[in-house]
């Protein structure tokens, strides 16, 4: 039989096998095939080509001559379709099939009659017998699940489906909805399609360390046959997590790219773990976390080299290579390290813009290494393109939100390492972003003294950065994870744990601070304290001020002389009189500008009576012109600020010596320093800052000290403070131009404070403050004075410590509400002390203290116009409420005192209103001064005696004032103050009687009434205790 064209002109010697070589067609076969085609064509031309729909229709018609060609094209049996030739004469013989229909493409139909892995399909015409006789398209209606896969066309023997490369198709190659195409070659159905490695996106259905997932198609059994993307929902907590796909029971251990099981924390939430199934593992494209070197710059005086001293953040074996960086690696000898400073140049005059006389290498960007910007330890995580310290957070640089652990700050690091690393982190955040947040994780972080060598200011006292553990620059927040899980301490309780430098817009939250004070030692470390930039470096307007020689132009008046003794300015007093001495010196100022004054003072063994310093527009020390003054203390640096009112200002010192003092009575001063000190330039503030969700305890001084600058819009809330040597929270105002306005407290609990220093308070407020939902408890000690909440009294004119306060009146306008203040019954404790005007204390209870709520003052100001309401004072050893001397215009309303030792209310003030106040069980309900009585209005009160008065209007046009109290008879009196009389602005109407209806003269002794029928028209009679007497002395 003639070969087909496909066989004759095949590509390779063995059809479909490239390695068999290229096939060269045989010309004999070509001529034979051509002759056959020509004969068919001729026969068709001779008899005319005819077409039948079915073979039955053709067999029913034999009326064609021999060799007639006919086509059957639409028989339901595919094998019947084809090209036929008539055998025998017309009317006899038969039709014989001689060839397939010449179709090059056949579309198969797959109705799903078979299975996904054994496909049954039909075609409209038979599949050509010749290999590759027609291209057949095959729809796929189900995802295959195994290999190999077969197909049967028209019920004929099955063909094994092969990919174009000759390999078996595998799960994932043939999917529902696909259409593939190929040729029948022998017992195979060879596809034109080739399938590369599949990409499958899985759905994570749950699990932390044993993940379950589903995929839209089956996972191929062959290793590496499919690339699978698995979303991670939860960070794994154990090593060697596993995954099962589609519930097939095949547990795959998740490994990194090297085949090592992933460690705990290696899979993070939101991560897309992608990889291949390899054996019993799911191998993801993730290498072990790399180690970041920690490096620092070291100098031995002649060389400056880089030292790698540790590694952080990696997985697996930690590198051990450390030392000084050389050209080939590391060395333990600093002499081998590469000197990053480079060799010294010739010591010549220089040329061009590099003249030795004018060139400053630190001022020219890029000309020299700027050591000031490259100090200390810089973690690799802070340098661009360095190794990742923790790839799970994708940090390769400092960011505005920086996790301390990524920088090597950790509970397991040494205190020295933590201090250096957090110091470096602060500097990098500040330099790169100006502001940011440093987050501390779980655990106990301990810090050594900070490596910060800068000098800061605590109102004139110079504070080195190394006196604190963490120095927090302006604009950087410190946050923990939770206050239950993040704990911060200094390695020495004498250190302040955090110095916040002029905080602005910052948050300190979600951590506990325990400075590990033993409650006995006299260390003075704080928890958190704000400082301001130092005034050092600003020109001294009274330079030199150090009195290295001479008296430096100070002028003196009064009975004293000045001299320079051992580098100090000495003022010696005249022995013959009660000496008064004044010295002064002028300096230039700008009106309205702020200035700071600092001086050290020293007294003789015989102290002076008065030693004060003042500033003003003239040297007279006149109270009418001076701006500010304060008392100088022996061997203590004193500082104050003022606003200039003239272009020339005098600094004056005024002193007096005791009468009859010896001639060598003197005082000395040194280190006089005056500088301009504009607040905005110097960042003198603590503003827009929040302290919240904190536990602070075991601190030898203040838990929180807001000591410097204007305290504005600062919030402290949800804070627990315990075991402090001094105040729980202290805020100060230390300059006449400073205003504390906007200090808010809420949800504060302070207990066991003042364990070291008398005079401490739970919350001490200089300046206007608003306290709500606050508790102070368990405070007091024998011989010590403490106060739960203190709204400061304005300081006297010449105080030992200058606190100025809001608009010159300290805590004016402050409020305390919803409070509980409970002492332990020891010492001279006051629950709430108010010394400023216009304050409100409301809704609370005080208990077990010496005095409950105390309103006091001094010569500079008092708690006038206060209001206390809805307050209960219980078990106070002296008074429940004290209304002190000089206080004016206060109001007590709904105040209840219970079981107080001396009196429920002590009122020695003026113009006080008491409304609906009551006492139960106190020694005395209410007491006043034994001297001049206080002035008060008492309405509806009960102090164990009479209650007060009621006012009624029984008829229109009349008001009655009637005493109320438990006694059957209560005298009702009107009093003037001092010698002031009681006057009447209208005519006085006496009660009227007749001579027969007059009441008992003995009951109304000294009283005067009117009689309407008195003899001789005499209307008034007065009782002498025995009789009613007319004005002429006769008895009624």
Q: How would you sum up the global shape?
A: elongated
What's the CATH topology label of the domain at 555-676?
Jelly Rolls
**Class by helix and strand content?**
mainly beta
Terminal CA distance: 173 Å
Quaternary assembly = single chain
List segments where confidence is low: pLDDT < 50 over at least 5 consecutive residues: 362-397, 629-636, 796-808
Largest sheet: 18 strands, parallel
Radius of gyration: 51 Å
- Which band does the percent of strand residues land in? 35-45%
Number of helices: 5
- What share of the residues lie within helices? under 10%
CATH class placement of the domain at 555-676: Mainly Beta
What is the mean pLDDT? 82
User: In the CATH classification, which architecture of the domain at 555-676 applies?
Assistant: Sandwich
Task: Give a short overview.
Helix content is 5%, strand content 39%. The chain has five helices and 74 strands.
How would you describe what is shown here?
By secondary structure, the chain is mainly beta. Among the domains are: 105-191, no CATH class; 198-284, no CATH class; 555-676, Jelly Rolls, CATH 2.60.120; 992-1030, no CATH class. 5% of the residues lie in helices and 39% in strands. The strands form eleven sheets. It has an 18-stranded parallel beta sheet that branches. It is elongated, with a radius of gyration of 51 Å. Residues 362-397, 629-636 and 796-808 have low confidence and may be disordered.
